[in-house]
């Protein structure tokens, strides 16, 4: 008999919201370990991502009926209200009954009575209107389920109107984004093949990108054979900016899982190579798998190393080009990873900036004169982007910024490529290019 999908979803939601687990990892592990039908796997995924991405909104709806209760009960209420408001095909009575059963099984008679009472009160009343909230920033925070401090940060950085655009866009489902491996095939051939089965479009911003509203592309033969891979359109721009030449020696300082490593390798001949670093063995294994699948292994060397030790390991003049795709808050990825918004470390901008600068500081010493260093992040706040570049350049007069261009001129800001998630419905992303004089 298959397991109860709502109970499975609740246990993932508890792990993420109460124990700081990553939603994608916790969900994948749970789906693998539980006995679920395909339909139930989809329901669990929908409940987990839906409830997490709307948690603050869902709590606000039941707030008038809940004074204090256990965290898991609050999560159960949120998951149930999510079904009632956002999942048209689930009858309200079924959602409530299932919640009461879970409360009885996981708690006791008193808790199930409480859950029943709250949900009956909630369903009997009209939905609250966000217009009840007089403060406009607080209203945004509740309406789009973005923690208040982060909402304030968005408004301060982008202004109110742009923040609304970003929040609205983040609420829309992510698209599937593919990159074509042009060493094995070409974009037109792959596009025509995919178009027979899926509703696909060419990327507006990446010459190697194809996008689709949905589809399980990792199941395709062309994915297994390495003709296509899954990579966001914005991160496909990094290899283009690095402009690798066939015989380049390249340092990819923060490489796992290797999306950009394999892309850059496609530009190299057998005489060129990439030294790909990361901190963890299990992450290096992901690069190896990617490299093998895309037939690029022979150009990629894997080393477990803290990038801040690169100079000690490789010495001066070791590389023609360096990519620092830095560890960052990942706030540009909120659409695909809705739990990012609730993590405390997400807004430790000073700590993140220090690591980013330390990595640049050490790796830059391994670059040849006239060498190129590209810095990128999947976040959209200045502290991790422009401020890092400004601080680095102020300390390193031997480096200069190389102004970037793009045929979509709205992607270019102060000589860098800067994409917010609303502009082309991609991840948010930042790329800067520097040259050692
Ligand atoms: C943004 S991700 C890189 C994504 C990768 N470039 C890609 O395209 O698939 C940052 C990576 O940096 C690694 N990392 C964090 N701190 C590091 C350090 N001090 N040295 C090397 N790698 C580090 C993390 O483990 C993580 O895999």
From TrEMBL:
Annotated family: Belongs to the class I-like SAM-binding methyltransferase superfamily. RsmB/NOP family.
GO MF term list: RNA binding; rRNA methyltransferase activity
Listed PROSITE patterns: NOL1_NOP2_SUN, SAM_MT_RSMB_NOP
Active site, UniProt feature: 378 (nucleophile)
Record-annotated SAM-dependent MTase RsmB/NOP-type domain positions: 166-437
Annotated compartments: Cytoplasm
Catalysed reaction, written as an equation: cytidine(967) in 16S rRNA + S-adenosyl-L-methionine = 5-methylcytidine(967) in 16S rRNA + S-adenosyl-L-homocysteine + H(+)
GO cellular component: cytoplasm
E.C. no: 2.1.1.176
Keywords: Cytoplasm, Methyltransferase, RNA-binding, rRNA processing, S-adenosyl-L-methionine, Transferase
Uppermost EC category: transferase
Coiled coil: none
Alphabetical list of NCBIfam families matching this protein: PRK14902.1, rsmB
Binding-site residues for S-adenosyl-L-methionine, renumbered to this chain: 254-260, 278, 306, 325
Function: Specifically methylates the cytosine at position 967 (m5C967) of 16S rRNA.
A Pfam family reported for this protein in Swiss-Prot or TrEMBL: NusB
Protein name (Swiss-Prot/TrEMBL): 16S rRNA (cytosine(967)-C(5))-methyltransferase
Main location: cytoplasm
One GO process term, biological-process aspect: regulation of DNA-templated transcription
Domain of life: Bacteria
């Amino acid at each position: 008999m298959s397991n109860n999908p709502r109970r499975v979803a609740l246990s993932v939601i508890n792990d993420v919201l109460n124990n700081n687990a990553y939603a994608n990892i916790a969900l994948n592990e749970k789906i693998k370990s539980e006995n679920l039908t395909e339909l139930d796997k989809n329901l669990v995924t929908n409940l987990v991502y839906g409830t997490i991405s709307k948690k603050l909104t869902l709590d606000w709806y039941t707030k008038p009926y809940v004074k204090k209760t256990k965290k898991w009960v609050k999560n159960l209420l949120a998951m149930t209200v999510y079904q009632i408001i956002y999942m048209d095909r689930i009858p309200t009575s079924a959602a409530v009954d299932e919640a009461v059963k879970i409360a009885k099984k996981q708690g006791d008679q008193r808790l199930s009575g409480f859950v029943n009472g709250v949900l009956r009160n909630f369903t009997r009343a009209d939905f609250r209107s966000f217009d009840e909230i007089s403060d406009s920033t607080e209203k945004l925070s509740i309406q789009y389920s973005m923690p208040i401090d982060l909402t304030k940060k968005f408004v301060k950085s982008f202004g109110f109107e742009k923040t609304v655009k970003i929040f609205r866009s983040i609420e829309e489902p992510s698209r599937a984004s593919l990159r074509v491996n042009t060493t094995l095939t070409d974009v037109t051939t792959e596009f025509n093949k995919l178009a027979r089965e899926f509703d696909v479009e060419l990327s507006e911003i990446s010459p190697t990108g194809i996008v689709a509203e949905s589809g399980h592309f990792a199941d395709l033969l062309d994915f297994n054979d390495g003709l296509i891979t899954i990579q966001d359109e914005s991160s496909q721009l990094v290899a283009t900016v690095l402009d690798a030449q066939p015989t380049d020696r390249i340092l990819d300082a923060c490489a796992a899982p290797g999306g950009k490593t394999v892309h850059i390798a496609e530009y190299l001949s057998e005489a060129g190579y990439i030294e790909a670093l990361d901190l963890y063995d299990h992450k290096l294994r992901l690069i190896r798998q990617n490299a093998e699948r895309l037939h690029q292994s022979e150009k990629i060397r894997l080393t477990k190393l803290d990038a801040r030790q690169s100079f000690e390991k490789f010495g001066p003049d070791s590389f023609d080009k360096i990519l620092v795709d830095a560890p960052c808050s990942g706030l540009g990825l909120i659409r695909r990873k809705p739990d990012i918004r609730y993590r405390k470390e997400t807004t430790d901008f000073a700590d993140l900036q220090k690591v980013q600068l330390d990595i640049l500081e050490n790796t830059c010493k391994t670059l040849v004169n006239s060498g190129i260093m590209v810095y990128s992040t999947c976040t959209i706040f200045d502290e991790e982007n422009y401020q890092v570049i400004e601080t680095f350049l102020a300390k390193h007069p031997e480096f200069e910024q190389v102004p970037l261009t793009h045929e979509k001129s709205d992607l270019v800001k102060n000589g860098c490529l800067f994409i917010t998630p609303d502009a082309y419905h991609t991840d948010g992303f930042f790329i800067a290019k520097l040259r050692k004089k």
